[in-house]
Amino acid sequence: MQIFAGANKGMTHYDDAVAILREKGNRLTPQRLLVLSTIAESRHHIGIDEIYKASKSVYPYLDLATVYRTVHLFRDVGVLTEIGIGDRHTYELRTRDGQHHHMLCRQCNKTFSLSPHYLEAFKASLVKDFNFEPDLDNFAVAGVCTDCKSQRT
Amino acid sequence: MQIFAGANKGMTHYDDAVAILREKGNRLTPQRLLVLSTIAESRHHIGIDEIYKASKSVYPYLDLATVYRTVHLFRDVGVLTEIGIGDRHTYELRTRDGQHHHMLCRQCNKTFSLSPHYLEAFKASLVKDFNFEPDLDNFAVAGVCTDCKSQRT
DNA sequence: TTAGCTTTTGCAAATCTTTGCAGGTGCTAA
DNA sequence: TTAGCACCTGCAAAGATTTGCAAAAGCTAA
Fold it and tell me: Which residues of chain A have pLDDT under 50?
């Protein structure tokens, strides 16, 4: 099945993700590439329903269950980051090397990248004081961003 | 409707929670007190299904929807902390004053308390560098605890 | 103590998410 | 290039969570 041609020039994150999936022995089905492409093309974090709707418009036979399974696969394999906002889960591609974390504004819903360096001291203190090895790969904090703070009257 | 008598002597967290609910104008229905009591009596964090099962054994008419609504109310009002572990959500009472955070072991599923002080530097750096005000009230980290680390061969 | 207003509950239905299964399809090795 | 196997997909059904609504019950004020 050929769903779409390779109109993905310059999509570095997309290419990285494909490489990771292949490395780990996962099959590159058109459905997976489609979902991946949908997420890659989305500017911000994107929810299951949006992924489904956008992808289905390209390939109408796509099943919602496949989207769920695909997204969970991508998450477990490390290709994307899952951000839990309240009760809503959204997703965003992750780059190959650099894990980065997220700050999410509760008011305007924008996300901001956060360098891992901000969490290093925290992580080190847990290891040192409790011998607890935290997994901060998919770390996200919610809060209020600077724009929304200044808009408060 | 009277479900159970006041066998709650010394349950400080429970009493605090009741006070907070009353303060905020929520009705203290037997169902709510029952759910609260169930969570308070649970030694560790507890899931919706467990809350439901345990509470229903005391008051069989209790509906699952009520448990969901009650737990969400408690969370929004700040009476309990919701911990998202993977796909599972669990709950734990919160004391009136002292918020504390959680470390959760992915392997043995035990939780450990974490003093807020460990996150203060992190929080301060976000405020300073990005003017981003993180909400760390319900903070939980997953990882591997010291026991499980030592059990690895 | 009671009346009455408003919130809350239980039920049932809607929605969201996961899972089992049989057929279809990517990938590997020849 | 093809054959064959293991993995994936779509479908349908199960399971989990949320929501609308009418009846029931908590709380306040008299």
Answer: 5-10
The answer on A86 and A12 residing in a single domain is yes
Q: Is the CB of B78 under 7 A from strand D?
A: no
Please give the Cα distance from B119 to B101 (Å, whole number): 9
What pLDDT sits at residue A73? 97
For residues A151 and A89, membership in a common domain is answered with no
Q: Per DSSP, what are the bridge partners of residue A46?
A: A91
Same domain assignment for residues A118 and A73: no
| Cβ-Cβ contacts under 8 Å for A63 (sequence gap 6 or more) | none
Q: Which nucleotides of C are covered by protein (CB under 7 A)?
A: 7-13, 16-20, 25-27
Closest CA in chain B for residue A130 = B146
Give the pLDDT of residue A5.
Answer: 45
Chain A partners within 8 Å of B132 (Cβ)? 103, 105, 112, 143-146
Q: Which of residues 98-117 of B touch strand D (CB under 7 A)?
A: none
Q: Do residue A124 and residue A59 come from a single domain? A: no
Residue of B nearest to A131 (CA): B146
Residue B81 bridge partners (DSSP): B92
Residues A92 and A111 in one domain: no
pLDDT of residue B64 exceeding 70, the answer is: yes
Residue nearest to nucleotide C27 (CA to C1'): A27
pLDDT digit string, tens, across residues B79-114: 998 887 667 889 988 875 667 788 888 777 778 888
Q: What is the pLDDT of residues B16-51, one digit of tens each?
A: 899 999 999 999 999 999 999 999 999 888 999 999
Query: For D18, which residue's CA is nearest its C1'?
Result: B65
Q: What is the CATH number of the domain that holds A55?
A: 1.10.10.10
The single residue listed with the structure tokens 């993905």 is A8
Cβ-proximal residues to A117 (8 Å cutoff; 6+ apart), any chain: none
